[in-house]
Description:
This protein is α/β, with parallel strands linked by helices and about 200 residues long. The chain has nine helices and five strands, in the order βαβαααβαβααβαα. The chain has a single domain (about 1-190), classed as 3-Layer(aba) Sandwich (Rossmann fold). The protein has helices at about 15-25, 30-40, 45-55, 60-75, 90-105, 120-130, 140-160, 175-190, 195-200, and strands at about 1-5, 30, 80-85, 110-115, 165-170. Pathway: Purine metabolism; AMP biosynthesis via salvage pathway; AMP from ADP: step 1/1. It comes from Galbitalea soli.
Amino acid sequence: MTRLLIVGPPGAGKGTQSARLTETFGIPDISTGDIFRANIREQTPLGVQVKAIVDAGDYVPDTLTNALVSSRLDEEDARDGFLLDGYPRTLEQVAYLEQLLAGKGQALDAVIQLVADQDEVVARLRKRAIEQGRADDTEEAIRHRQEVYARETSPLIAVYRDRGLLVEVDGLGDIDEVSDRIAEGLAARGIFATQDDAAAG
Ligand code: ADP
């Protein structure tokens, strides 16, 4: 029963580490961005409603996002744990999530923050953009997204730090190294993947 959040700037390898965590802990990776994109692709009523907002890169209103997460956490596979990715993103969502979990007699176990030097991440994303022929993804645009991330998430990070939930992990280095650091940070808080969890994942 492990309830985790993961936060990290674009390019810090959050997707890779999330996939590993869901496997190690046998918990679903719940990404609000992925859920919105799937709804848009399938043209569900929710997808139709949020398409313009998501396309513009703006935040979907909290009421919609909160309702979405609430129903997702009600699903069977999330009953005994989850990894939330991309949510909460606002202080209102932080408060909502806390209430929601409290109502189920649950609480978060830890918030993993992947920390990465901005220059390093920008260089990494820039390299990837060139390799993938996305030269339009300029250094300036990449840097801007990093700044937006830092500005928007820092109040959330502060809240979780105050609550003693934050596990700060250096996101630079190779994938296994970062995974090991995450495992160490969680273990220091008494959070371990059991044999059963690993088998279920
Ligand atoms: P990124 O592409 O920055 O990693 P995501 O994939 O997490 O972002 O989300 C894509 C889009 O989905 C966001 O730009 C936003 O429109 C919407 N979205 C995702 N999560 C949230 C959230 N917690 N609150 C509001 N909007 C969200």
